[in-house]
Amino acid sequence: MRHLDAPEFRGAFRTWAALTKHLDDISTPRFSADRAKRQLIAGDLISLLNQDGDTWEATGSNPLPAYAESWPATAGGDIDPVYEMARTANDLDIYNSAFDADDYVDKVREAILAVAPEGRAPLDGGVGLGGLVRYTTRDVKVAGSGHAVFTVDVHPVDDTRGPLGVRRDGDSFSIEIDVKLPTMIQRTSESERARRSLVGVQLPGLQPITPLLRPVADLAADKMAALACQPGVGDGILAPRFKDIADLYYIAQTCPVDGDKLRNALAENWHWREAGHSGPPYPYRFYGQAPAQDGETEILWHQGFEQLRSRVAQLKDYPEFGEMVGTITTFLDGAADQSNGVWDPARGQWRPSVRSEVSSAMSHALSPVTADKEPIVPMQKHLFVFDVDQTISKHDTLATLAELAGRLPEVNAVHAPDYETSIRAKIAVLRGVDATLVRQVADTVELNEGVEELIRDLKAAGHEVAIASGGFDAIVGPLAERLGVERYAAGTLGIEDGVLTGEVSGLVDGPGKVTAIRRWNEELGIPRERTVAIGDGSNDVDMFEAVGFAAGYQPGAAAAAASHTILRDMGYLNRVAHLPLPDRLNTAARARRSGSERVS
Length: 600
Description:
Elements: H1 6-12, H2 16-26, H3 33-49, E1 56-59, H4 64-67, H5 81-84, E2 92-96, H6 104-115, E3 126-128, E4 133-142, E5 148-158, E6 167-168, E7 173-179, E8 192-193, E9 212-213, H7 216-228, H8 242-254, E10 257-258, H9 259-268, H10 270-275, H11 301-311, H12 321-334, E11 340-344, E12 349-352, H13 354-366, E13 383-386, H14 397-404, H15 408-412, H16 419-429, H17 436-443, H18 451-460, E14 464-472, H19 473-483, E15 487-496, E16 499-505, H20 510-524, E17 531-535, H21 541-545, E18 549-553, H22 557-562, E19 565-567, H23 570-573
Parallel strand pairs: 2-7, 13-14, 13-17, 14-15, 17-18, 18-19
Antiparallel strand pairs: 1-2, 3-4, 4-5, 5-6, 5-7, 8-9, 10-11, 11-12, 15-16
Helix pairs in contact: 2-3, 7-8, 7-9, 8-12, 14-17, 17-19
């Protein structure tokens, strides 16, 4: 199980009672032990469902903290305030992006019952949390709209008695899993990887649980529509959605949101069609918000939310109702402006399109010098982080190694749902290959035109340069030395007795690149706002989102969508080191714009 180191976890929590005591000890008034327990179970369940890939994605209010960058409050206790301040939501809303619509419910039922069997005695249920619990399903319903709702019972057990067998070890409880139909899940852009674990507590042996999430722009559009449409129109729920006020405010306070994506999500949202509207109201307002417009039933939103606040611990620390509505309105009205590029939650305001400003600045820099043109002012010291394959190097180094070994067709035949699984499977194909071929690849890496000169000029200008690669140290190390780059991060190829073992350790995937960049930021005293990342592939998107400026070098679709600028040659990036770039680029938020102007 990728999410659990069972020996370490069970070493710390031999019994269910030991786990629940620990959760009691670290709980806070806003983040109870029961909430932590249910988050832990929900995370375990989705991880068990995703053992063979990332096809099960999370949506709804439960994973909201996983989208968040930060909560604008002082941390208190052992729980990150990002988790503490998100509204409690105990059910698990998921969907499967790979199942066909025709037999979707049947496939969903089969997958859920494989993890939590139906009609079994509690002690015979599916094994969860490294053996601390058993899962059974006692209730399966197919709702009117076709989605399946499962009630999974969680049975704490004692499995430490060896030959004496397993016995009950605490009261059972249940968790509801709502599996949405694909037709119910609007996705107008690519799914997002969770920034944080679905589980708000850190426990020994528990790895971060970071599944794919429904795009936050689509989630925000749903909640916006639920508040703006008449109750019972569009979402089929007759009661006013007071809880969505809190969730939408939470998104606006914690999540950078791409303007193009939100505009697209709002335009495509099916609620408007169901309600007979062309789109959201402008200026934005809740349906029936006083004073109610003609034909509307007035809804006492303020009073209803205050009643909700009195029952939900997290909401007691939210600001006054009027302030929340003001933030939500600023967020949603600003989305209507095509020139707005990204919502900055830290400042509570929209920032203009980054690409248009970069284009303007670069055009200014490249235009002939005139009497009225301001001179180019050197930037402060920056950190430039380069990917290797098809960014620094002209070719994919793993493919080059496979070709030298005569195994390129077998490597190309590998298909996997995620980057890490793919790389590990490809390396496994190379088991037994002579390790001298690795050095041969390292010594003959063909560089992309202009990259050597660019790195030399950046260093000469006083900037720092590093390499973050999904490749391997036996190739990246000699390449970094050749380029005069002191800092690099890469995986380690397994080599024994002069041949490849078919294994790799310390693989630097997308999140791994971010970890390396954060370490270098701290070591060098250079903040993320003055960090520039250059890459081309989907495994570079995480680091693009973690820096102040992202440059896609002849990128694929995912990296292009995440880039501030698209580069066709490295020499052009050299200009960036000397531009008085807009203040926009000196913030951690950045725009992932896929359909706008590209700079080349």
